[in-house]
């Protein structure tokens, strides 16, 4: 006889489902119904019903069936306190897991905090000035055969903008002279001090534009009279101690005195206005009469700035259009067409074209590195948390059976993540506080260390804590709370329920990809810097020292040159304007032969005596060297100049006339030298002209025997001080000055190296924790394989093949990303390396070696473990 499908009494079943916890329901109901079905078949419906009722009622005795909301009487405080206690105890029980996560997060958060304060410091430059949105610097675009950018302007431009136009509420000119020697008297003794930031000839309106208040003196009259000066409080104390600096006299280079009429409050660290001595602009006529004149439109001298605060409603485009006619008005014959542009104050610090201290792309790189480090640490956390899922599955099953809802368990795991994040942040704050002085030295910044008083930083840290907790905690909490209690307690969870190998593989691939992108960046920048330092420059830069000369006659300079040549360690000496490659240069427009118009390209003027070529080992490819002369009589040019003029045979150019500096410098071409790099590798080789002009000699170029550098320098200093007893001895090696071309790249390289090491170290922590889990899960399997004849190599490959596959997949992702980023970075160099296969092979090879070192010990340990011990492992 067909019986209908057996069902328990509906009333008791509904009661059971209503009263019991969901977790208990999953765990018990199936067994009760199974027993009911057996009883139904054996005893019939009536007896089966009574037995079911009896079984349900018996469950009350041990307290298995309890109210659905066991925490309903707890206050929110009690609930969170319970979460905290349980989380803290769980973390203490799993010390290795906890320490790995805290170490990784603390390292990444430390770097994020340091990057944040560094970015905040740079983005806050000159943002403290009133009406900063209306303050602009006038700059120049020079259009020749190509466009070049200069942060200076002709000195009369500021006067024209102020007197002929009403766009500017205030207009001020400033001429900055760096690396100056200042002398003064203290306690009756003359003191000489070199000021790297120098001083600035400044119009009084400058202090109406910028917010640099005086602590002593009257701003309206301080710089009104000639030969007056304002200095900062720091310099006032440095020069005069506790004496009143007002009325004291400081002297520039022993010939230009200034009376101090005011003292500025110390300049804040986040300003691009660097001089701490401001002198009256009306004194410029004694320093440089040509620069001070109202007709100095013929060229642009570096350091000649013009600032303006525009009236409300005036746009920069209006001012740029109004200034454009002055180019043709004052320089009608020049092929060097100037375009005067207004640069917003907020862009001054970041526009590398005009000498900005930090390019915006560098800020982007720092932010990207911070994000990479944070992602790497969070990936570690997720990997380890999901790997621990099997160990905690029974805990989840028991909690669900005892009445915990999924939401309660979810917040329990989130609280555990929050505890780790908070502890990591506290460690990171201490570490960042200790590292700020080193960061300041490294990046040449003055970042304050008042972390707790910086509201923006506090908000950043709070936001970082919330982000890490959610980013690292949500997915593991979602996985761990999703277990079915029956499967969890019976140990029947699948790998997909534990987070899945594919999920962990994806996260490991992400870590490897981030690390490989950083490794590619380090390799490319290192190779480019090595190329820049070791490549042939076209001249000798080794063991050549540039000694700044005093302002004397040619006879005096020639006499001292001859004295230098008598020193045993000195091989050659030349009087010159500058070395072949130097930061300071004089670019001029020239006329060639019978042409009536100037050429369209700029020419780098190298003023030097006849020993210049031999001192720097410049190679002649045609013609001869210059004959000794005090004035311009002959010229030697480089190959680039003749190539720009269209010559294919250099011999054909010999004897042709060159007219430079508006025709004031004239001479025939008598020689041609090989091209030499006159600037950094960021720029191409300029057309260059070498000629004699004694009134433009500012340095002695001295070639020293490399075996006696120290003793020879001491002899040079002695001779120099005998000639110039009241001047400071200054020198610089040519190779060191060339290295300064790449200071920004060196800093970037060191920064990426450091952060790459941190990212790789964090990744290694994660790999160490993950391999520990994998080995604990496969120990018995390893024992079985060894018993069945598997060798050590087979066991090692069992673990190694997984990581090798992941490294290769990560490389396929990282290689195009790294290539694109570094190819973009190299575009800033005119002379650069090529991105070859070895660069990427080194990246993937480094990843394999690092991974092998990280997991190797534990893999070898389990591979050589006695299989008897492995098989006994639970």
TrEMBL record:
This is ABC-type antimicrobial peptide transport system, permease component. Coiled coil: none annotated. Keywords: Cell membrane, Membrane, Transmembrane, Transmembrane helix. Residues 98-325, 514-717 form the MacB-like periplasmic core domain. GO terms for cellular component: plasma membrane. It is a multi-pass membrane protein. PANTHER family: ABC-TYPE MACROLIDE FAMILY EXPORT SYSTEM PERMEASE COMPONENT 2, MEMBRANE COMPONENT OF TRANSPORTER-RELATED. It is found in: Cell membrane. It holds the Pfam family MacB_PCD. The chain crosses the membrane at residues 99-119, 363-385, 409-436, 456-486, 507-526, 754-775, 795-817, 837-860. One of its GO terms (molecular function) is transmembrane transporter activity. Residues 368-481, 754-867 form the ABC3 transporter permease C-terminal domain. The lineage of its organism: Bacteria, Pseudomonadati, Bacteroidota, Cytophagia, Cytophagales.
